Each structure stands twice: as structure tokens, then as C-alpha cells.
Amino acid sequence: MFAAGILLVVLGAASPAVPGETLRWTQVRSGLSRAQVSEILGEPLMRNAARGYERWVYDSGCEVQFTRGEVSAWTAPKPEKSAGAPISRRDAPLTVARRT
Hints:
- By secondary structure, the chain is of the alpha+beta class.
- The protein has a single domain (2-74), classed as 2-Layer Sandwich (Beta-lactamase Inhibitory Protein, Chain:B, domain 1).
- Helix content is 25%, strand content 20%.
- It has 3 helices and 4 strands.
- The protein has helices spanning 2-13, 21-25, 34-41; strands at 46-50, 53-57, 63-67, 70-74.
- The protein has a 4-stranded antiparallel beta sheet with strand order 1-2-3-4.
């Protein structure tokens, strides 16, 4: 189980955020039921189940793992980047003003 949790963390570290998704993932907590997770995040892209564990995979590659029907681990997307960064003077093209 520990190895599965580590795998979830590693996989999530490479997942980019889908706009608006990060906020929903902040609501995921250990112990939530499948129905609660579905209400928060929507339906997963893929579900895998075996031996008391279930894993839901979402479009962003983020995952939720359930043990005996409750959230036991998850990976959240990286925080979203801002739409743009302010332009610094070094980013602006150099123009020379000519006197006429």
C-alpha cells in the first residue's frame, strides 16, 4: 500500500493542471466515499479495481485510490500558472529615439 501511495505521488508530480481543476482537488480528503469524490471531481476517465483497492484516473493523469470504498491516497494537479507574467524592461525590445 505504501508503494502504491508513492507511485500516486510520483505520477501526480508530472501532471499539468486543467483550468479550474486545482480548486476541486483541494476538496479531496482521506475517508471520502466514491459518491463524494464523484460529486467533487466528476466521473473518472478510467477505473481499475482489484483486491479491495480501486483506482480512478482523471483526464489530467491525476488519480484517486480507494481502500475498502474510501479515499486512501490521491494525486492532485500542479497549481495552475497565471495567464501571463508582467513584462520587465529586459523583455521589451530596445528602440532608439532619433532627433529630427
